[in-house]
Amino acid sequence: MKPPLFDIVTKPFSIVFICIVYALLQTLAFSPLMTYPFLLLALDAFVDAAFFAGLGFLLWKVIRYGNFAALELYQRFINYTALGLLVIGVWIAASYLASYLILDERFLLEIKKIIWMKGFIGLLTYLLIIQLFQVKLNRLLEQEKLSDEAEEETSEGNASPTMETIERVVVKVGQKIHVLFVPDIVYIQSDGDYVQIFTENGKYLKEETMKYFEMNLPQSQFVRIHRSYIVNVEKILRIELYEKTNQMLTLKNGDKIKASASGYKLLRKALSL
């Protein structure tokens, strides 16, 4: 099976190759409009491409972990537009600075004349990158869905008797010990070998497993809606559909967390929907 396009263009060798191709195309496009040497123009174009590659890496981090899917359509449009203006603005500024360092000062006036062209190229490149990122995010969501379904089948096949229900959770923060009563917990999030326990007054880190809380919290009140989240159903304000089959929960503390398809089935059962 061939690797997805996004995986191809994010490999180091592929990035360098794409930068070289971009530099060649930009050089060929701009050389009739410029008077300075071809090699300097090619070097300037390659630096432009390298800058955009770096910005693209940062852009992926923002989109991947920015939870844009939880936002309304107009909010996503505003965020993507703002990101685009920021990325293109930073790229043009970095490009001009590189040109100033690489080229002779007498050529800078020529650079100013084509700034609008670079801005247009930056806009087209940004739109292409966003499309590639969207394809990658959809793939990650599908993989996550399959993983959740596999985890649900495994847990059903290895069901064990429920342990004693806990009424409070003790958390040590520095020299202080906090006692969190179970009804005050809004949700619990997986964090490696720890969990983050969120209440309406803050969050607390505890060295414990998600499985422990899944088995020991009151099952009529707490539901594991995702491999990374256990939610207190009494702290849910709103449930909204997003990304086809997944759901987004808005909680009383203002946080938004997602429920997988299998997790939403358990939540519907707990809510008698």
* Amount of helix: 40-55%
Write out the strand line-up for the largest beta sheet, numbering strands in chain order.
5-4-3-7-6
Number of helices: 8
Structural class by helix and strand composition: alpha+beta
**Rg from alpha-carbon coordinates:** 25 Å
Beta-strand portion reads 15-25%
Averaged pLDDT, please?
Answer: 80
Cα distance spanning the termini = 41 Å
According to DSSP, the number of beta strands is: 10
Write the layout of secondary structure elements.
Blueprint: H1 5-9, H2 12-30, H3 38-65, H4 73-102, H5 108-113, H6 115-157, E1 168-173, E2 176-181, E3 185-191, E4 194-199, E5 202-206, H7 210-216, E6 222-226, E7 229-232, E8 236-242, E9 246-251, E10 256-259, H8 261-271
Antiparallel strand pairs: 1-2, 3-4, 3-7, 4-5, 6-7, 8-9, 9-10
Structure description:
The protein has 8 helices and 10 strands. With 273 residues, it is of the alpha+beta class. The chain folds into 2 domains: 149 residues, no CATH class; 104 residues, OB fold (Dihydrolipoamide Acetyltransferase, E2P) (Beta Barrel). The strands form 3 sheets. It has a 5-stranded antiparallel sheet with strand order 5-4-3-7-6. Strands 8-9-10 form a 3-stranded antiparallel sheet. Strands 1-2 form a two-stranded antiparallel sheet. Strand 3 and strand 4 form a beta hairpin. The longest helix is centred in the middle third of the chain and has 43 residues. It is elongated. The relative contact order is 0.08. The N terminus is likely disordered.
